[in-house]
Every structure is written in structure tokens, then in C-alpha cells.
Specification:
The chain has 632 residues and is α+β, with helices and mostly antiparallel strands. It starts with a strand and ends with a helix.
Length: 632
């Protein structure tokens, strides 16, 4: 039974985990810790905006979709919430190899937040409090609770900070600037200063969001329609529903006239006048930044995305801006289809505090204050998915810390989540970090289709993924193995398959051939074989094998050699990857290290040789020195 403390005659329990901020990171952190058995308090400044989609109303995308599937495989909620609230689904990059396939959904913005709140309210062990946290309570270099703007002091064994863009947030629209963490919502004041007094380094970052417009004022006939997949998929490996209907998105384009109007406002742009000191996202720049950096381009794409099932509000993806609102309006009117556009609100930029992530351990606990964890945009990332992944890992590790269990750390060869956290802590970031498939050196192993095989057993072992999830994963593994075995054993005669081969412009066969050999042909997929092979079709039906299981079996057959090569590389590097380094190691005492290596290693404080090898400025020769010193 929890101890209690009293405030103005009201008795509060002492919590295991306090999570500050109910964005995507905070919600996943609270859910994970509670589902592992911790008593959790989730503190947010606005309970009506839990897991708010502050920017675009979508989940997933290139590499981000893989992260969502990993979150789901580990027992997180983001994939489930997305499936219940999506209005369109697309698998991106299907024309490329399976390592690049990335699921993406358009979602109903209002329903997404409502569904998250509903799921958290049904999660046993989660309490809520609406207030602003301005101080972490520290005793003997340990976090023991928080103090709020109402003068409350809540006590806990661990604290997770997931404050998003709210720390000293300033919103910029043209020459106007005002405090806020999101338009219409107050900034969080005091917490940055408190953390800096404790010894943390803080910096500024910037992000932005586009205009929202009235769909009734748009002429969609002048735009290109983008429909969802004919057979829509989903994120969760559980029994969430598939979409039965979808809403379309639309593609529009800027032009030279639009660019000329936008340039008229440059002298009042906070981006160009220097009023914004924080660095913005490289891969999601504002429209003014795009036409300045890519001045030779005559047009830029705009993705016109519906905000939900029952709203006329649209999100103009690609038209992020901090220019004066009248300039935004005048320019957007010159985009075909937007001649009569009505604004719901202009685009704006937001500048906020973050804490360089080299100040964290790989379990997302801070290095200088024990039992204090950071997750999400406070660590310099951008994107719902990156934030949710960090929140999930921070919630897991906060619980494990108080139960005296080893930290839960994913490696770069196990998950995109492992790449994300390792990149942040080892390489740092001075601009909003966004995940891409190119950041993962083992991306053929880290496909979206096999996230459950990779991660659900690990999560089940620590008690987060349920027994039911594990059974679903085991059943899927069994079905995929059975399909592969069948393909390798079963042969097909020319009379059955040649018409299919001709239709797909690949050479016909003259004698009986094994199904797996035919599947190696780039022109064929497993569904082509099912059309030609009665035996394969009957086998699939008798075993109740899903399309997703068939696709995974096909990938494992087609790319077997490449997958095995990547596994060999992982095994070779694992020899040094996990050699531990003490957090208090005196690198300046090793004169054989280069001066740059001594400085970088002393700042980052890597936990393993593998992590040390990925620090910019640390050479292979420096790593050899460390290995020799450690007697390896």
C-alpha cells in the first residue's frame, strides 16, 4: 500500500512514477509504467488535449511507420489508437525493397486524442492531475517528486519529463511574438530554469506548423486526388479493425507567383530577421525557407489533408510558415484550387527549450540526477512517433529502476527505437531529429512486418507484452514457417503456372519447378503463385494464413541471402558492441587517446565500446586504445 501525504487536508498517494506532460511521449510513458505495475500520476496542463496532434493529422511514414509497429510489438498504445481513428491508410515505398516499406495513416485528429484519453482512463494504475509543473523535487541528487503552479508537491520514486514544445515556448507569426506551447495554450515556465540550476545544459529549437483551412472553400477538381490503398492495412498486430471506407487526400502545387508574394514578407519574417535563435527541422522546412534554399525550383508540393471524418478542416502539409498572416493568405490564394480559400488559423513557428541528449543514459535516465528521465521533444526530436517511442522506453525503464531490475535497452540491430536513442545520446543533435530508414544500418532486419518477431518476446519477458500478444506472435511465426516450408517442398507443373508467368512477363517453365525458386523471380509475388497453384491456395485456406503472413514469408524467401549477410555483420560487431565502459571513466588520463576523443568521450560518457565507436570525432585508433586498456 502506498504511503500518503497531505496538502490542505487532502491526502495524496505517493507514486512510483510521475509523468509530466501528456503528449505522445507522456501518454506512452504513463501507459507502459502502469501496465508493468507501477502507480502512475500523469500531470498535464490540459486534459482535453492528451496526445494532441499538434501538427499533421497522420501517424507513420518513412521509418516512422516502422517505429509505430515496434511500439505496438512492445505493448504500447500508439498503433492501436491509430487503427481505431484512421481515415486513410497507405503503405509507402511499395515500389522499393521491403526494408523501405513504411505504413502511414491519416487520422481523425479529435478522435485520436479522445481515444488516447479513453485508453489511459481504462488503464489500471494511472491517476491524472491538471496543472503546470515548474520544479523537480530533488533530495541527495535523486528525483523524489515535483512541485506545481498551484503549490502542490507530489512525491514519487521516479519522474519522467515529457514537456514537448512547451518549455518557455514562444510563438511567432510575422512580427508578432507571444508565449505558448501550442497556439491557444500557455507555455511552461520555470522548469527549464530549475533544471539548469541542477546542472543541466539547455538550448533552443524551433519548429512550425502550416495553415488550417476550410475545405468548403477549396476547389478539389484542380488538385490531384490521393486515395488510400485498395486493401488498407493497419499498424497493430492485435485484432484492431481494418478500414471499410477511406477519405482522400489531395496534392496541390505552389508556383512562381506564390513564391514572389511570399518573398514580400521576408523582411518581416522572424526566420530571416534573426528573432528566432533556435534551429528548425532540416527535413520539414517552412515554405519561406524552401523557396529561399531551393530558389531555382518553380514549384513545391502541398499535401491537402482532411482533419477527420466529420469536419471541413484541412491541413495544408508543406505550407508551414511564420510569415505575417496576410502574406500567407495572399500567397495561398494563388495556388490552383485555393483561389477562394478561407483560413481557420494561420501557420506559425514555435521556439522552445530542449536539453541536449548526451546528458542521458541509454535507458533515458539523466546522468546527473538519479531517477529522473527525459522523453520526447525535450531531447531534441521532432515527430509523434519518435516522441512516443522514447516515452514508452522511459516508462519501462522508470518502472524497472524502482523494481531494481536491469534497464531495458534496444540495440541498433534490434529496433529503429534502438537507432533513435543511440543516435540521440551518442551523436547528439542541434536540430530537430527525425528518423529515416537511411539512419539504420540494419534496415533489412528492422522491417515493419517483423517488429513483433523481433520485440514482442523481449517485452513479454519483462512483463509488458501480454500473454495474448505473445500467443499471437507465436501463431504468426508458426504460420510463416509453415508457408516457407511448403514453398520449398511443393513443385508446380508448367500447365498450372505458365499462363501466370506470361501475364507477368517472365519466362515460362518447361518442367516441374519448386515454388520457392519461382518466387525468387522479381516479376512474381506470392499471390501470383497462389493464383497458379491450387495446392498452395488450399494450403493457405486450410491453415487460415493471413495476407500479412504470406507477405512476410515471401520477403524471407526472396531476400534470404541478404538477411543472412546482415545477421553475420551484426554477429561480428557484437564482439565489441557490449563491452561495458564505466560512466566515471577518466578519459583525460589516457594520453594515447586523441584530444578530440578525450573531450567527446568525457562529454557523452558512453556506456559501451560500441556506443563509443559511433561518437563523431572518435576514431578506430581511439577505440583500439580503449580495447587494449580494457585488456581485450
Amino acid at each position: 500500500m502506498n504511503e500518503c501525504f497531505t496538502w490542505n487536508m487532502y491526502e495524496f498517494p505517493r507514486y512510483d512514477v510521475i509523468v509530466v506532460g501528456a503528449g505522445h511521449a507522456g501518454c506512452e510513458a504513463a501507459a507502459a509504467a502502469a501496465n508493468l505495475g507501477s502507480k502512475v500520476l500523469l500531470i498535464t496542463m490540459n486534459m482535453t488535449n492528451m496526445a494532441q496532434m499538434s501538427c499533421n493529422p497522420s501517424i507513420g511514414g518513412i521509418a516512422k511507420g516502422q517505429i509505430v509497429r515496434e511500439i505496438d510489438a512492445l505493448g504500447g498504445y500508439t498503433g492501436i489508437v491509430s487503427d481505431h481513428t484512421m481515415i486513410q491508410f497507405r503503405m509507402l515505398n511499395k515500389s522499393k525493397g521491403p526494408a523501405m516499406w513504411s505504413p502511414r495513416s491519416q487520422n481523425d485528429r479529435s478522435r485520436f486524442s479522445e481515444e488516447w484519453r479513453s485508453m489511459l482512463e481504462q488503464t489500471r494504475g494511472v491517476d491524472f492531475w491538471q496543472d503546470m509543473v515548474h520544479e523537480v523535487v530533488i533530495e541527495g541528487k535523486r528525483a523524489v517528486g515535483v512541485r506545481t503552479g498551484l503549490g502542490m508537491e507530489f512525491r514519487s520514486k521516479t519522474v519522467v519529463l515529457s514537456n514537448g514544445t512547451f518549455l518557455n515556448g514562444i510563438i511567432h507569426i510575422g512580427e508578432k511574438s507571444f508565449g505558448g506551447g501550442r497556439i491557444g495554450e500557455n507555455a511552461s515556465i520555470g522548469l527549464t530554469e530549475n533544471l539548469m540550476q541542477l546542472g543541466f545544459e539547455s538550448r533552443r529549437m524551433k519548429t512550425g506548423t502550416p495553415v488550417r483551412v476550410d475545405g468548403r472553400s477549396l476547389d478539389f477538381s484542380k488538385m490531384e486526388e490521393q486515395k488510400g490503398d485498395e486493401i488498407p492495412g493497419k499498424f497493430s498486430f492485435t485484432g484492431t479493425p481494418h478500414l471499410s471506407k477511406q477519405r482522400s487526400c489531395f496534392l496541390a502545387y505552389t508556383n512562381l507567383e506564390v513564391h514572389a508574394i511570399l518573398r514580400k514578407g521576408f523582411d518581416r519574417s522572424p526566420l530571416f530577421t534573426g528573432r528566432i535563435s533556435g534551429k528548425g527541422p532540416r527535413y520539414c522546412p517552412s515554405i519561406e525557407d524552401k523557396i529561399e534554399r531551393f530558389s531555382t525550383k518553380e514549384r513545391h508540393q502541398l499535401f491537402v489533408e482532411p482533419e477527420g471524418w466529420n469536419t471541413v478542416e484541412y491541413y495544408v502539409n508543406g505550407f508551414s510558415s511564420s510569415l505575417p498572416e496576410e502574406i500567407q493568405f495572399e500567397a495561398l490564394q494563388k495556388v490552383p484550387g485555393f483561389e477562394n480559400v478561407k483560413f481557420f488559423r494561420p501557420g506559425y513557428a514555435i521556439e522552445y527549450d530542449y536539453f541536449p541528449p548526451y546528458q542521458l543514459k541509454l535507458n533515458l535516465e539523466t546522468k546527473i540526477i538519479e531517477n529522473l528521465f527525459f522523453a520526447g521533444q525535450i531531447n531534441g526530436t521532432t515527430g509523434y512517433e519518435e516522441a512516443a517511442a522514447q516515452g514508452l522506453m522511459a516508462g519501462i525503464n522508470a518502472h524497472l529502476k524502482i523494481t531494481s531490475k536491469p534497464p531495458f535497452i534496444l540495440t541498433r540491430s534490434q529496433a529503429y527505437i534502438g537507432v533513435l536513442i543511440d543516435d540521440l545520446i551518442t551523436k547528439g543533435t542541434d536540430e530537430p531529429y527525425r528518423m529515416f530508414t537511411s539512419r539504420a544500418e540494419y534496415r533489412l532486419l528492422l522491417r515493419q512486418d517483423n517488429a513483433d518477431h523481433r520485440l514482442t518476446p523481449l517485452s513479454h519477458k519483462i512483463g509488458l507484452a501480454s500473454k495474448e500478444r505473445m500467443e499471437i506472435t507465436e501463431e504468426k511465426t508458426k504460420n510463416v514457417t509453415q508457408i516457407i516450408d511448403f514453398l520449398r517442398k511443393e513443385s508446380i507443373v508448367p500447365e498450372e503456372i505458365n499462363s501466370i508467368l506470361e501475364q507477368n512477363d517472365t519466362q515460362i517453365i518447361s518442367q516441374r519447378s519448386k515454388l520457392d525458386a519461382l518466387l525468387l523471380r522479381p516479376q512474381l509475388n506470392i499471390f501470383d503463385l497462389i493464383m497458379g497453384s491450387k495446392a498452395l491456395s488450399e494450403f493457405r485456406d486450410s491453415k487460415h494464413i493471413s495476407d500479412e503472413e504470406l507477405e512476410e514469408a515471401e520477403i524471407l524467401v526472396k531476400y534470404e541471402n541478404y538477411i543472412e549477410k546482415e545477421k553475420e555483420i551484426v554477429d561480428k560487431l557484437a564482439k565489441f558492441e557490449d563491452i561495458p565502459l564505466r560512466i566515471d571513466f577518466d578519459y583525460h588520463g589516457l594520453n594515447s587517446l586523441s584530444m578530440e576523443a578525450r573531450e567527446k568521450l568525457s562529454r557523452v560518457r558512453p556506456e559501451t565500446i560500441g556506443q563509443a565507436s559511433r561518437i563523431s570525432g572518435v576514431s578506430p585508433a581511439d577505440i583500439s586504445v580503449l580495447i587494449v586498456y580494457l585488456g581485450r
